[in-house]
Amino acid sequence: MSQVLIQRRVAAAGIPAASTLRQWAARALGAVAGDVTLRLVDEAESRDLNQRYRGMDRPTNVLSFPYDIEGLDAPILGDVVICAAVVAREAGEQGKALRAHWAHMVVHGCLHLLGYDHENDRDATEMETRETRLLGEMGFGDPYADDTVGHEAASDEV
Question: Which residues, 6 or more positions from 4, have their beta carbon under 8 angstroms from its beta carbon?
Fold first, then answer.
């Protein structure tokens, strides 16, 4: 069983309750044991992390930081950082329900911690299929159904 810690560093309307975020993360992680931190941030922190770890000078929707520390005995999977303002803006621009987009970002970030990525078309298809299935099980539609940009709109693992 995984423990999901919520770090809320931003006061913004529309952020789902901590219990909801934990449920979504738990669904994405499945039977994998390990702790995860979901850190909800503002655009300044997102931009700083995106610049520092990906070389991109802009805020982004979600960043994942998988732990890979040799000799660490604690079951820590990693951190997922989600920018509330970017999620809200994207939901509006893409005509998506804000709650559905939040669920997608939590699932997307957690799947990166499990080793999924979208660096090539084959991997992107595998990740998007898993995301769509998980979100469907939670009552949400396919987040890529009307997405003309596809997997490139989602942020990378660092």
Answer: 21, 22, 25, 26, 35, 36, 37, 38
